[in-house]
Amino acid sequence: MKAGSLIAGVALLAGHAAAKQPNILFILTDDMDSHMEAMEHMPLLQKHLINEGTVFSRHYCTVALCCPSRVNIFTGRAAHNTNVTDVWAPYGGYPKVVREGINDDYLPHWLQAAGYNTYYAGKMWNQHSVENYNAPHVGGFNESDFLLDPFTYEYWNATMTRNGAPPVRYEGQYSPDLTADKAYDFLREALRHKDRPWFVAHAPIAPHGNVHFPYDESDETKQSKPGYAERHAHLFKDYKIPRGESFNPAEQGGVSWIANLPRLNDTVIAYNDEFQRSRLRALQSVDESTAALLQLLKDAGELDNTYIFYTTDNGYHISQHRMHPGKECGFETDVHIPMIVRGPGVPRGHVSEAVTSHTDIASTIMELAGRPLENTDGVPMPLSLEAEANARMEHVTIEYWGLAIPEGELGWYGDANMTDDYGSSAHAAINNTYKGLRVIGDTYSLYYAVWCTNETELYNLMEDPFEVRNLLDANGGHAAQANAFRIAGRSLDQVVSRLNALLVVLKTCARETCREPWRALHPQGDVATLEDSLAPHFDAFYAGQPNIYFTKCEIGYIAESEGPMYVNRFGGGIHQGYVPTNAKSAPENGDEVAGYDRKALKYLGPQHRISIWT
Q1: What's the catalysed reaction (predicted)?
Q2: Strand blocks (E) in 48-150
Q3: What is the bridge-based pairing of β-strands 456-460 and 445-451?
């Protein structure tokens, strides 16, 4: 998409070129799904945003875990470029955000430089805690009220820091209502400054599960269903998770640790249904607060000069593919997520089929602010029909490093490489590092992934929308589907050779290579889509490309374990991928984490705490 096309199209449809920069209201939930009817059970969201704005039906997060996903949102850079890939140190969390320089160079700072006042209420970063809340303060906001670990996911025991002041505990108050009240205050404050545009974010923890993290060595992690306000306790008594083909299937695809999961029994399924009911109830507070925020805008006469973005950090699975509640996988359940935009010139009641991702959000907001970004990995989302007609994106990079951790009270994954001394309240699948690729065109919809075990997956979502038939699983009994598979008349092998090369490009892409990855392979610019690349005269070229492989299952981004970093260019030469310097080897701190062991899911004690934010 050409720079400026979003603004031009929106201004044209709005009937004026805005003299004042537009306001931005950003609502970010935690773990909200697209496939279990979450949006359908939020009537105020339907009324005020879906009916009055545009739903991006092909919107994706690029890493299905909250901290790296939020860094992706607020920087516009892929996780392999931010090198924030986990929720805990040494590979993620707030100390890692600070160490990577992101605290001084991300969206709120850019907005302030563009003349905006900025405000934030709710959850920002994992491992932003009562101990490091001021070391340093989170940068970029005029005013803020952040939830703090280890209390972030306790619905009735929130602790927050307002504008960097010492933490305040709000025991007994319901967290999503509490953060909403903070957001209302910030919005009223922003509205008082008539001469300045503003950015206000509300980030409640709903519908994330309730998690009690240990406060000392005698304590342990306890996970349970999301908390909900008493006024919503009567809702959704008869709700059940949709029983699609991937729901606790008798036979399923997936790589070995997923394919070998035992089927869930009736007790677990009943628990999971109630877990999702609790998630829907928790979202009702978000539904109410979203409507209340828009009412404040309407009362102030600013609704027509405000863009409202509603999304979540990542999706969620419950019972699909026989999995306990959780995220961290590349299935549609985990990465295909809600994205709604309402604002001046944005089509009302429209469903956009443009392929977009969280990598595009920062570029979108900054172009609306009149300061287009050049050094991000994304492009502005098409907020007008004109921009949508000219959008050319067909791909989304999906990536993940580390563990798959089951949530709730009944979760347990026993990986073949897992030993008993790793577990307390839950066991995690440890071979859950992979590189994936979603490619969506007029006649194809594919998910391709290579795992650190060097297992591969390909799902044809046109025929298999629930992703249960892995066309690359020789033992999966899908030979007939694999043999019949065609795109543009080309066979499975020819398609996979193109997907492999495209994924090699994207797993180390940066900036324009992320936006136009086919140019790394075809610098002449004559190939812009998967279908273009399938021309028979390219067969020998793709047959000579390096294959993706891993040499080790790492729990963070160690680029040297992730196989080839270059592709051959058509016509001669190579394209070398971009790898951050500190992604080439393990961090100095090795496997130590700040007070918490991701493998054991247990408290380590302060003697293991590492001060990497100073």
Answers
A1: an aryl sulfate + H2O = a phenol + sulfate + H(+)
A2: 54-60, 117-122, 143-147
A3: antiparallel
Do residues 28 and 312 touch, judged by C-beta distance below 8 A? yes
Which part of the chain has CATH 3.40.720.10? 22-390
Place of tokens 């570029």: 363
Residue labelled with tokens 């299935």: 331
Spatial contact of 325 and 335, defined as CB atoms under 8 Å apart:
no
Residue tagged 């001469």 (tokens): 195
What is the predicted pLDDT for the residue at 183?
98
The CATH class, in words, for 22-390 is alpha beta
For residue 530, give the nearest of 417, 591, 443, 409 by alpha carbon. 443
DSSP 578: P
The answer to whether the beta carbons of residues 151 and 133 sit under 8 Å apart is: no
Query: 350-357 and 395-400 as β-strands: parallel, antiparallel, unpaired?
Result: unpaired
Strand 210-212 relative to strand 222-224, pairing: antiparallel
Beta-carbon count within 10 A of 218 CB: 7
Rounded to a whole number, what is the distance in angstroms from the first to the last CA of the chain? 40
Q: How far is residue 455 from each of residues 28, 337, 470, 473, measured CA to CA in Å?
A: 34, 26, 11, 9
Active-site annotation holder among 61, 66, 329, 553: 66
The whole-angstrom separation of Cα 572 and Cα 554 is 33
At residue 486, the pLDDT reads 96
Token pair belonging to 210: 């309730």
Give this prediction's pTM: 0.92
443/62 Cα distance (integer angstroms): 23
Residue among 505, 470, 546, 564 at smallest CA distance from 246? 470
How far apart CA 227 and CA 220 sit, in angstroms, is: 19
pLDDT of residue 427: 64
Ramachandran class of 424: left when φ > 0, alpha when ψ lies in -120 to 50, beta otherwise: alpha
pLDDT score at 416:
34
Known catalytic residue: 66? Answer: yes
Q: What is the pLDDT of residue 19?
A: 60
Q: Check residue 418 and give its pLDDT.
A: 35
Question: What are the CA-CA distances from residue 49 to residues 299, 324, 365, 408 (Å)?
Answer: 17, 31, 18, 31
Q: Which of 24, 473, 48 is nearest to 291 (CA)?
A: 48
Angstrom distance (rounded) from CA 145 to CA 32? 22
**CA gap 110, 206 in Å, rounded:** 28
Which phi and psi (to 5°) does residue 489 adopt? 80, 0
Q: Mind giving me the DSSP string for 181-230?
A: HHHHHHHHHHHH-TTS-EEEEEE--TTSPEEE--SSTT---EEEPPP--G
Specify the pLDDT at position 6. Answer: 53
Residue 394, pLDDT score: 94
The separation between CA 448 and the C-alpha centre of its own chain, rounded to angstroms, equals 18
Residues of the chain with pLDDT under 50: 1-5, 7-9, 11-18, 415-426, 586-614
